[in-house]
Amino acid sequence: MSKPIGYVLDESTPSVVRFVSDKPPLLGDYVVINYGNGLQVLGMIEWVGARNTAFSVMDGVKDPTVISRLLKGRIGDNFFEGKIKLIGDIARFELPRIPPPPGSPVYRAPQHILEKVFGGKEPRMIRIGTLLSRPEVPVYVDVNKLVTRHLAILAVTGAGKSNTVAVLADRIVRIGGTVLIFDFHGEYVGSTIGGKVNVIDAKLNPELLTVSELMVLLGIEHRFYNQERVLRRAYAKAMESREGSFIDRLIKAVESLKGREDPKAVAAVLNKIESLQEKYRDILDENVVDVVSRIKYGYANIVDLSRVDEEAADVVVSHFLRRILYERKRYKRFGEGLAVPILIFVEEAHILAPKDRTTLSKYWMARIAREGRKFGVGLAIVSQRPKSIDVDILSQMNNKIVLKIVEPSDQKYIREASETLSEDLAEQLAGLNVGEAILIGPFVRVPALVKIDKFQGRLGGADPDIVREWQSSVSEEYDVVDEMVEAVIKGFTR
Ligand SMILES: Nc1ncnc2c1ncn2[C@@H]1O[C@H](COP(=O)(O)OP(=O)(O)OP(=O)(O)O)[C@@H](O)[C@H]1O
Ligand SMILES: [Mg+2]
Hints:
This protein is α/β, with parallel strands linked by helices and 494 residues long. It folds into three domains: 6-109, no CATH class; 125-202 and 295-452, P-loop containing nucleotide triphosphate hydrolases (Rossmann fold); 207-279, no CATH class. Helix content is 37%, strand content 20%. The protein has 16 helices and 17 strands. The protein has an eleven-stranded mixed sheet. A six-stranded antiparallel beta barrel has the order 1-2-5-4-3-6. Strand 7 and strand 8 (138-142) form a beta hairpin. Helix 6 runs antiparallel to helix 10 (310-334) and helix 8 packs antiparallel against helix 9. The longest helix has 28 residues, at 466-493. The radius of gyration is 29 Å and the shape is elongated. The chain starts with 5 loop residues before the first strand and ends with a helix. The structure holds adenosine-5'-triphosphate and magnesium ion. Magnesium ion binds next to helix 5.
């Protein structure tokens, strides 16, 4: 190794090392510490501060006049202090139980070691970006661990969440994987992810809905227990025969309860079924087949939710999650059902799995978080409001890609839901630029500060050019006025 960049200070522990350097070390960069007994340990710089020898001696002088005099006299040199989080020895990535001796030299980690740590020769590895501190070192993530241990992608708006989804989905499809993305804003529908996109309409066959799903669409909460009972009884009756439309059968079944159930509840349920047909004309369709049979293997399957409201989105998403988990279990047991593992991306996770409300999607997301590993169903949740997500679900997403997060309360919430995100690292989140992220969890060998690749295909959702949109709408108006003026002039001259 070349020249050391610094030396270990005293008071180090087996996991955290303080060091000094005369040149500014790069935050997030990797170093190797030579313990002197053949042991070489890799670590990441998690914190950097600038110091001055004279200021230090004077116990952190803060008087500007004194500082100006010190500088004029050229007393004291600037130096840098940093904190290194140790990762493990470079042979086996195991953490030694002893701290490095004070004075041990600290080297910048050589490229070949980093390539070994972040590399991706095996087929299960896909590239996600490059090390922020070393653009020449590509970073790969382990897809097996991604799918089985789930993922959360968190950041403020515009920081690069959708781009990250596109990069991951693209590369997974290109190695033959199957993904499903719930698209709330129509960004992925027209995309070229993986070169193989299958758009799935958010249409459900009402006959295949559960009572709970119907209740959400109808707006029947559990506290309206009379209405719930009417619906449950009618639903059971409507399921007895398969003749005619399900909704007609359901209406008939409710009507047959007149005189036997609370008349107000019966009237209310009838009313709600009528408005259901009106309100959800777009998503209910008695002719569509089951959602799982619409998923194409080896494709980026995009469920277009751009035209549905929050309640309907909850029903559509939970319906897919429930059916996918069920069909994967069936496949594992009987060889029939959904024949391939699948990774499901859920955008707007703070709406579908909120902290303070129960939703159907939240229940099924929790089930997949718990059981998905065994059946090859992976969940990747995406959100710009981490602290509004249910904490159990967030903490079960063992892998995390955290881009820029400004609010300290969000940072704290993420930290509480992640074992491996240290306070020092979390503090860096506010300073990240677009596309820069911290990766933690089993899908990377060690925590990494990464510049995510930019998705090279077509993807909606780029920052809109507001001024251009205004200007083009104004000029269109002028065109119309011009045409009118022309028409009038023509009329006069005819
Ligand atoms: N890694 C990256 N490299 C270069 N540009 C990027 C990167 N990530 C995102 N961008 C650009 O930044 C803009 C916003 O990205 P993106 O839509 O992914 O953000 P987002 O976090 O999903 O935002 P929102 O919260 O609105 O959904 C886009 O124009 C995108 O092309
Ligand atoms: Mg987005």
